Amino acid sequence: MVRKFRIENWHRKIVTKRTLLKALSFVDAHPDLRTPVLLMDKEKILENASLVGKTIPNSHVFYAVKANADKAVLSLLKDKEIGFEIASEGELDLLIDLNISPERIITSNPIKSVPFIQKAYHYGVRYFAFDSLTELRKLEKYAPGCEVYVRLAVPNEGSEWPLSKKFGVELDEAFILLQEAKKKNKVNPTGITFHVGSQCLNVYNWYIAIEKAKQLWQRCAEAGIELKMLNIGGGYPINYTRVAPDIKEVEAYISRFLKEKFSDKIEVFIEPGRAIVGDAGIMVARVLGKAVRNYENWLYLDVGVFNGLMESLGGIKYTYIPEEATHASSSYKKWTVAGPSCDSMDVIAKHVDLPEVDEGMLVLILSAGAYTVSYASEFNGFPIPEVILI
Ligand SMILES: *Cc1c(COP(=O)(O)O)cnc(C)c1O
Question: Whose CA is nearest to atom 13 of ligand 1?
Fold first, then answer.
């Protein structure tokens, strides 16, 4: 049986045709597919990985492992000339298991546990972020001689997943912290980092961040602290329900800003997460049931907020492609799409335009490769989607 999906022209602008076709033929080849499942297009991951940093001089790319820590995904990226950004012992263990050398690993989480610092340092990791005196003292004690970079607070307006309040310090404090590192001379103050917010749709955020970093860089130079590296974090957006600036467009802005503010000699670190794996992933879910409640059409899928689509709570909206019902009219309805659990928080989206679908049918959820399975829990006994590379 060949399943027919209701593919609209605009769907083809959200993910590449090849990714969609690969997912469709995988589904066709597996009539008894266990759902939910996350299909990851290998070629797309590799293509994304080779695009990032391409137009930024002297740049090094470190994949933010938290976006999708699946072993097969990591192992695919291992074979690329690409590094990894981690935050925990758990993520470090994954990389050690894959024999990824420590020179390819950095950690930009500004607050780290002591056992993690010790383990990373012992393994040979040498790049650590910080944004407080407490963290600096920990690094001096447990990672002597390492390279430290300070996290600056920068605007996150226009990012669909802001990160700015939890981490980062303002210019004056950042300067004091780097001075303090230099004074004690136990670790090397080597650079500056920031994060403009994830799924950043506002390129102006990079402009402000780079400008701020430049001011700090200059103050350091005047005080005899010679910085070498600027880590511009992640934040590159992908297409969910609309077309966002792609890697090339975003980097055209970033490299222009960098050229304006910095010399070519600085090293640039980039830490993309979402942009490497997000649009390579298509989630295949199944319709468990439907109902009309208070004049609203409810659609229940076997993947929801808890077992994969957690980001929908923060406002990420996905594109859904349902299987075509044979009897149905072609007219669209508004649906509230919910996950399988008994928790009322488990609602993925409201006011979604979809044609009629039946129980047991499949629904493709596009751009689901980042921050889905890595967030997922087995709450209420519903399985975390299996990740399959296609
Ligand atoms: C999460 C994170 C990233 C990746 O961000 P994306 O928006 O997924 O590109 C990069 N750096 C740090 C420090 C992060 O915490």
Answer: 108
